[in-house]
Each structure stands twice: as C-alpha cells, then as structure tokens.
Design goal:
- The structure is a homodimer of 328-residue chains.
- By secondary structure, chain A is an alpha+beta fold.
- Chain A folds into two domains: 8-146, PurM-like, N-terminal domain (60s Ribosomal Protein L30, Chain: A, 2-Layer Sandwich), CATH 3.30.1330; 163-311, PurM-like C-terminal domain (Phosphoribosyl-aminoimidazole Synthetase, Chain A, domain 2), CATH 3.90.650.10.
- Chain A is 30% helix and 24% strand.
- Chain A is built from ten helices and 13 strands.
- In chain A, the strands form three sheets. A seven-stranded mixed β-sheet of chain A has the order 8-10-7-11-9-12-13. Chain A has a four-stranded mixed β-sheet with strand order 3-6-4-5. Chain A has a two-stranded antiparallel sheet with strand order 1-2.
- In chain A, α5 (172-182) crosses α10.
- The longest helix of chain A has 17 residues, at 68-84.
- The interface between A and B is large, with 75 and 75 residues.
C-alpha cells in the first residue's frame, strides 16, 4: 500500500487515477464508469445538457485558503449550477486535473471527495477524467444533465411584464472573499468561522430551484456566477428586454457586519459579487412563484439593467482579463 | 470592428468568446449551441459517450512548433479518437481555454478553426466552452458521442484466440517529434516538410474505423495514445488476457530514413510512440477483418504484452509525471 503522503510524481499518473476512481461512486445513470476510453451515460430524454468551466489556481482558488475538498466542491458547484440553470437535472461530471509533480496525492484525493460529495446529493456521478502535469493546479470540469422531459430554459425567453425572481444567495461569496482579503497576512479572529467565508470557499447553489422553475413555467433563467447585475444583463440582452431590480427586495442583513468591518457598501456585494451560483429567472407575472423563489424585480421593454430605476455604477462583476487579477 | 492583432486582455473575455463562437458552425444534432448556461445536444440513442483530456503548453504542445490551428486539430483529434475507440460517432466538443492576457486573439481564433475543422468532417460540433486567464496556455476538451444503436466496445472483452488488429499509423508522431527535437535550435533542412513532422503536429486518427469495428463484432478496442505496447497492455489487463504482437506485421518503411537520421531503433517508435491515435481492437478469429484494419497479433491466455513472444523492454510509452519531461 503506497501512502497518500506521496506526491503525484512519486505515485505516477495511472496509480493516481486508480486511487481517485476508487473513491468515486457511480449512480444508476452511469452505464460505464471511469477506466475505459470514454464513459457511457444514460440519456433517457434523448437530449443531454452540457457545460464546461476551467478553474486555475491563483485566479479561481488559492491552496492556502481552500482545501482540496473545498476546491472540489466549488468546481463541481459552478458546473452543476449551469445545468440547473437550464432547468435540467445534473447527471455526470468529467474532470481534468493539471498539477505539478510535487503536489501531494492527498490534495487530489480530497479534490475527488469534494467533487463526489457535491455531485452525489443532486444525483450526478464523476464518470471520467484526466490527470496531467502542469505548473499550476488547473481543474477543468464538464457537467452533463438530463432535461427530464422539460423544455430547457434559456436566457432568451423573458418578456416585458414578467417577474424577475431569485433563488439562493447573492453577495455572500464576495463578502467572504473580502473578509479573507481584509485579514490577509493577519488573524481572521472572530470572523474565521463566518458563514460568509464558508460561502466563498464552498458555495451552496439552490440546485432543485432550477428544475422547479422550469416546471413552473420560467420564461428565462441564468446562473448568477459573475454578479447579479452583470448576469441579469446577459439575460436581458439575450431576451432583448430591460430589467429593473428592486433594491428593497435584496437581502442585506447577513452582510452588514462584514460590510462595516471591510468598509464596503453591501449593495456592491449583492449587485456585483460573483460565485454564489444563485439562480435568477423570469416568470409570467400571473404565474405565482414556486417555492424557493422570491421576487427581486421586473422585466420591461427596452434594454439593460437598472436598480431602482437607475443605472448601476458599482463594482460591475468580474472581468477575466481585466487590469487587476480579478480573483481571489 | 476590433482587430485580431489585439491580445485577449485588450479584447476581453466576452468579446473573445463572441469572436470564437462566430467561427463555429452547429450541426443538426445541436439543439442549443454556445451562448447560454449550457448547450443542449440530441442523444437519439438514449445514451451518450463522454471523454475528457487536458493539454498543457510545454508538455503537450509548443507554440514555437505548432500553430494555434494545429493545436486545435490535435486537441480535438485526441478526444474524438476516444469516442471512436468506443465504436461511437462523435457529436460534440466542449472546450475550456486558459491563456495569459498577452496571448494574441488570433491564436485563439486559429485554435477554434482547428477544433472546428477536425470535428466537422466526423459530424461533431463545438457546442460550448470557457475562456479564463492562466499563466500557461491550457486546453481542456470534452468530447461527446452517440453509440448509434451499437453496444459500446470497451477494453475488457478480448478473449484468447481473438485477432489483434490495428487501424491507422503508429510511430509517426514519435518520429516527427524526434526530427523536431534532433533539429532543435538548428535547421530542419530537407525534413521540414516531412509527413512525420506533420503527423506529430496534426495527427490523423482513423475515426471511421471505430464504428466499423463495432459493427464487425470487435470484442475490445482502445485508442493508441500512449504507445502501442502500453495501450495494448491496458486492453490486456482490462480483458485479463495476454497479447502477442507480431513485429513483422508492423510497418516500418515510412520511418526508416528518420530513424537513421536520429540514430533510433524504429521499433521503439512503432511500439512505444504515442499521440498517433491509431485504434487497436480485437476481433473473433473467425470474423475476418473489416476494411481499414490489419492484423498485428493475437490474444492468448495469461497476462501482459509480448512482441514476437518476448517481453518488450524499449522506451515504454509515456509517463505524465516521470523524471524527464515526457513531451515534447
């Protein structure tokens, strides 16, 4: 028995893949799991929903802040939320890992556990992957999903008169990141156990709200990954409508203490903070909102996103090639 | 109109994605293409085949040797070959790109063209992707496929008495790499236009041979990506059989001049060279081989791979975390 205290280089590619695979469990939708040239997945609906994301150390996570387990959960969450945002049920993940030979095997096993533990409760399995050498830890996740007989909900179906609704939290991850950054090099003190920091390190997307919204006639839906105003902007542009967000409908209370500590306007976190993977959707005004969804605004004729009738000129969401490194 | 002479950082993430998407074409199997939270793909067989690979600059390709176009074709080929090796028809790619802000937009557009041009002839479309900042150019490709009513061919069905057969070339890519390395810093001279170098920069997997083999009752199949002996070893282990390769059945002629130039035993290239993405399969001995396949050995009781009845002690295929950087 080799030790998990070994590095990837000492253990070798195939043994690493074997050790990772041994920690995974395959659900009944998996017809052939990891270990062959490709996996085989059931697609009972005759359609499959697919999305992919790349996470890079130093930009999307830091190993000094996040455990491998947390990175695994976060990487899975970002992709599973994309599937939920189509109104579909996640069924599978494929995960490519690039890592230096010096990385402890333990970190990769923790990553696999995190991917597994985020996926299993929603019915998805890690069905395949790749492990290669790289100078920087890099994680590529592809998520697959089953529309389960429902029409996938795109970004482009919102109509003037629709209600804009939100499921899940916004601003928590940005607040957690601000607490971490604010304390950088120093002591986190009493905020070390803050649910905001936990929300940054391990987001909790409201997965079931996606299929529920599709079931209840959502006209458009999007995963809020880059910031509420920015992502509603994508939805508005795709639907060729305007959206007005009601600031009074946004929940600030959990953020107020952290905002005071960091000297930040909590609206910047709520309106522009990314990575919580809330879901935003539009519903016909007369439909009533399904459980888990709350009204945060309305769809109007025109274009762009306003907050309380005014343009939002705050932090503005993420820019992946912006001047300052955006994250973390 | 912005110029493609710009860098990724100047153009910005969303404009880059838009420019890439504009160059892609979506086949009839794509129900919803790029631009939403996820794509939607037809899966008429109620099953989907899925595989993923990560390619890292300096390890899987070099920008001074390969154009973006060639990297795109090679990245697509590696994944499409995995789908073919299941006997399935490739239908879609999802591609994550990590790149420094200083990378010219042109390189990424060339990459997209290469991905498209490798995929379209086999009926696959690039249906989704992600572009993020990274210090090293990193390309994550996930390929999806349709079994098209056939049972996927795994690595584990070979039986003693089966014929081992090969479709496509082996050793060409390794020979091309050796020519490039041999000439490193110097002039490639008359070998600059060598088909071996082309084979290294842009492999040509025998895609149709995969479904054809499944149709003709192949009992096991594998994509030869790491080296013939090593990959046959994976097939033999999964099937719990032994394989003996007939060295006289392997085609050396196209490699002889390059082998002499580099002072290499051409059998090392043929038996241990990776990245050609040939397909190796086993067929019941009485079945006769389908077009495109040639006999290279036989399946025996036992375990392991021999060449002409003897253990092969040559270069041994790739090791992704080995002592020396394995590639290129």
């Amino acid at each position: 028995m080799r030790s998990v205290e070994e590095t990837l280089g000492e253990l070798g590619e195939f043994a690493v893949i074997e050790a990772v695979t041994a920690r995974l469990r395959q659900g009944p939708q998996v017809l052939l799991g990891p270990g062959d040239d490709a996996a085989v997945l059931a697609a009972p609906d005759r359609r499959v929903v697919a999305s992919t994301d790349l996470l890079v150390e130093g930009r999307h996570f830091r190993r000094e802040w996040s455990t491998g387990y947390q990175v695994g959960r976060k990487a899975a969450a970002a992709n599973l939320a994309d599937i939920a945002a189509m109104g579909a049920r996640p069924t599978a993940l494929l995960v490519g890992v690039g890592a230096p030979a010096s990385l402890p095997v333990r970190w990769v096993l923790d990553l696999a556990d995190g991917l597994r533990d985020e996926s299993e409760p929603v019915g998805a399995s890690v069905i395949g992957g790749d492990v290669v050498g790289a100078d920087t830890v890099t994680i590529a996740v592809t998520a697959l999903g089953d529309p389960a007989g429902r029409e996938p909900v795109t970004r482009s179906g919102a109509r003037p008169g629709d209600v804009v609704a939100l499921a899940g939290r916004v601003g928590w991850s940005a607040a957690g990141l601000a607490l971490l950054t604010h304390a950088s090099g120093g002591d986190l003190g009493e905020v070390a156990e803050s649910p905001l920091i936990r929300a940054h390190l391990q987001p909790e997307p409201p997965y079931p709200a996606g299929p529920v919204a599709a079931e209840h006639g959502a006209t458009a839906m999007i995963d809020v990954s880059d910031g509420l105003v920015q992502d509603l902007g994508h939805l508005a542009a795709a639907s060729r409508v305007a959206i007005d967000v009601d600031p009074a409908a946004l929940e600030l209370t959990p953020l107020l203490a952290a905002a005071a500590r960091c000297g930040v306007d909590p609206y910047d976190w709520v309106l522009a903070g990314g990575e919580d993977h809330a879901l935003a959707a539009t519903f016909p005004s007369d439909a009533g909102l399904p459980p888990g969804w709350r009204r945060i605004g309305r769809v109007l004729a025109g274009g762009g996103v306003t907050v309380g009738g005014r343009p939002y000129r705050g932090a503005g969401g993420w820019a992946h090639f912006g001047g300052d490194p955006p994250v973390p």
